[in-house]
Amino acid sequence: MKFIETRLKGAFVIEPELLEDERGYFARVYCENEFLAHGLQPQVRQCNISRNREKGTLRGFHYQCQPHAEIKLIRCVRGAIYDVIIDLRRDSPTHGGWFAIELSEENRKQLYVPEDFAHGFLTLADETEVFYQMSAFYEPQASRGIRFNDPAFNVVWPYPIHMISDKDAGWPDYVE
User: Fold this and answer.
1) DSSP code, position 36
2) For residue 17, which of 4, 32, 99, 163 sits 20 to 30 Å off, Cα-Cα?
3) What is the side-by-side strand order in the sheet with 110-113?
4) Dihedral of the alpha carbons of 16, 22, 24, 25, in degrees to the nearest 10
5) How confident is the model at residue 175 (pLDDT cuts 50, 70, 90)?
6) For residues 70 and 135, is the Cβ–Cβ distance under 8 A?
7) Could you tell me what percentage of the chain is helix, strand and coil, using 3-state DSSP and rounding each to the nearest 5?
8) Distance between CA atoms of 53 and 78, rounded to whole angstroms?
9) Residue 66 DSSP code
10) Residue 100 and residue 115: Cα distance in Å, rounded?
11) How many Å apart are CA 89 and CA 5, to the nearest integer?
12) Residue 104 pairs with which residues in a beta bridge?
């Protein structure tokens, strides 16, 4: 695997290295030893999958506050997403900054999202599925969100949002 740090310290794009032959390919997409070698937390406590029927579906931004903050490893296994993370770490030089990348079944890239980052995505294709690995269990009382168009961050989406939940559309303006 190739680990490429983003402009947001601690967040990585992870690319599999394909071993291809006439049958297809084989690639490692997770290895505890490789994560540890790059200073990343490899613990996985929960895995989720999200199926999204229509292109233009937005989910997020979601995060869990301390002491239940979670690290996420995100991979699009079907279709494509415009994946966005926001650095909410108060002591970070990139606090309030955001990073976006296309994750798709074709490019096979993953995004490692550190604790205290918000995460959201917009589907770029119908019938998109996203696989999440998390370092912490879901704790409803620690669940928080940021509205997709919060002026504190000015995230630029590649095209208009077609579908979003009332909850995600209704998060109040972000306040530290």
Assistant:
1) H
2) 99
3) 2-5, 12-15, 110-113, 72-78, 128-134, 46-52
4) -20
5) confident
6) yes
7) 5, 40, 50
8) 11
9) T
10) 17
11) 17
12) 80
8 A C-beta contact, residue 142 and residue 65: yes
State the residue for tokens 């297809």: 24
Read off the amino acid at residue 118: A
Q: Could you say which of 30, 68, 95, 132 is catalytic?
A: 132
Exactly one of 30, 62, 68, 95 is catalytic; name it.
62
What are the pLDDT digits (tens) for 77-128? 999 999 999 999 999 999 999 999 999 999 999 999 999 999 999 999 999 9
How many residues would you count in the chain?
176
Can 95 be counted among the known catalytic residues? no
3-class secondary-structure state, position 28: coil
Output 45-48 pairs: Cβ under 8 A, ≥24 positions apart: 45/134, 45/135, 45/136, 45/137, 46/133, 46/134, 46/136, 46/137, 46/138, 47/131, 47/132, 47/133, 47/134, 48/131, 48/132, 48/134
Alpha carbon 40 to its chain's center: 15
CB distance 124 to 55 below 8 Å: yes
Please, which residues have CB within 8 angstroms of residue 31's CB and are 6 or more apart in sequence? 1
Q: Give the residue from 128, 85, 138 showing the smallest Cα distance to 105.
A: 128
Residue 143, beta-bridge partner list: 64
State how far the Cα of 2 lies from the Cα of 149, in Å rounded to an integer.
32
119 part of the active site: no
Rounded Cα gap, residues 153 and 25, in angstroms: 39
Q: Which two tokens stand for residue 99?
A: 């990073």
